[in-house]
Amino acid sequence: MQMITDKEFKRLSKYVKINYGINLTEKKKAMVMGRLRNVLQQKNFNSFSEYFDYVIADKSGEAAITLINKITTNHTFFMREPDHFEYFNKTVLPYWSSILKDEKDLRVWSAGCSSGEEPYTLAMIMADYFGAKKHLWDTRILATDISMEIIEKAVSGVYSCENVETLPEEWIKKYFKKLDSLNYVISDNIKNDVIFRIFNLMNPRFPFKKKFHAIFCRNVMIYFDEKTKMELVNRFYEFTEPGGYLFIGHSESLNRQETKYKYIMPAVYRKE
After folding, report:
1. For the domain that residue 98 is a member of, what is the CATH number?
2. In what order do the strands lie in the sheet with 240-248?
3. How far apart are CA 196 and CA 190, in angstroms?
């Protein structure tokens, strides 16, 4: 059984921090070792150093993607932190629908979208909100994540019966189709409202041509140290429209002295 040495863990942690912003503290050492051990066995590596050399040498990037898939926890579910969705429905949408009544282009980014529950929920909220006038609006949501594996799951739009039971019954009837006895699949009209892309939030420059009216980056920055988090938040601010909102996870917080966003309510901030 391969064990990861302190030197190997420091080397791996430094690589992940520099390239992906993820802060692997000493407390995560056992978790990292447990999640990567089967990869070492499958590839017949004798040590974590051999495996790490392989990751660095792989110019395709697939080895690095596998590494990130293994050490990040993509745990999410529909209607997670529901007060955010209620605020989005009751406050954010009425505000922007009045401001954007002429151009009808509402831009929302789900950053760190995991397996798709968050952006699909936002799409269903907007479908309900705009109703018969929905076709007049461009409300497509950009949904990004660093993990190719989790993006592929999100694109499939397949969720277990247990997974969707937290949703309103009328949504299940309106926006899902029964795939089999155990699973549902998101309807095409909701699927088409979400654009999934692989994207590393540590990119020093964001490639977007337009700014967003709302950005959701919830329970992603728990992996980042304070410096990395604030650098990312500053980039979010740059790509937020004046009057736009940033939603973060309830387990996260921003230093109000270091961010230009105005605090609105727990885990909700606004660019004024």
Report:
1. 3.40.50.150
2. 194-198, 141-145, 108-111, 212-217, 240-248, 268-270, 262-265
3. 13
How many whole angstroms separate alpha carbon 223 and alpha carbon 207? 23
Instruction: For residue 65, give the amino acid letter.
Output: I
Mark which of 43, 71, 99 sits at the end of a domain.
71
CA distance 121 to 161: 16
Contact 225, 199 (CB under 8 A): no
CA distance 19 to 129: 39
253 belongs to a structural domain: yes
C-alpha of 199 from chain center: 10
What digits encode the pLDDT tens for the residues 164-220? 988 889 999 999 999 999 999 999 999 999 999 999 998 888 999 999 999 999 988
pLDDT in tens, 58-67: 887 778 878 8
Joined together, the tokens standing for residue 137 give 């609006």
Same domain, 202 and 231: yes
